[in-house]
Amino acid sequence: MQSKMVRATLASFVFMYSLSFLWYGVVARAFNDDQYMMVLRGPQDFSLFSIAVGYFLLALLLSYIYPFGYRGGRAGSQGLRFGIMMGLLIALPAALIHSGAYKMPLAANMVDAAYRVVEIGVGGLIIGRLYGATAAD
Questions:
Q1: How many CB atoms are located within 10 Å of the residue 41 CB?
Q2: Would you tell me how many other CB atoms lie within 10 Å of the CB of residue 133?
Q3: Which residue of 28, 59, 60, 77 is 20 to 30 Å from 86, comparing CA positions?
Q4: Residue 75 and residue 116: Cα distance in Å, rounded?
């Protein structure tokens, strides 16, 4: 199981970390710059190391937790279900908490939460596919 976990961690990390650069750096860049101007760090202050460590920990923890909830069935659909549920668990409460505690717009946080559910959902799909039909072994 450890080699599956290592492969699942690395693959989901690479996917989610790379997708975040596409989303935040290209697709939603202008929107996020406008919505989060008051709380964003400037480009010179961006800590890619902290972001990479955060995504690695996310991938590692998702890969570690996945086998505990595996119920059998198709690996891809089980992984996607797991990823969506974890995305909702992580992103939705955080979006509401951040909007309540900081000067962060609720609508923008909800857009970000929706992106995170997709990102973590596909990360879960990758994890499920790499664990395969024997995730509980």
A1: 9
A2: 13
A3: 28
A4: 21
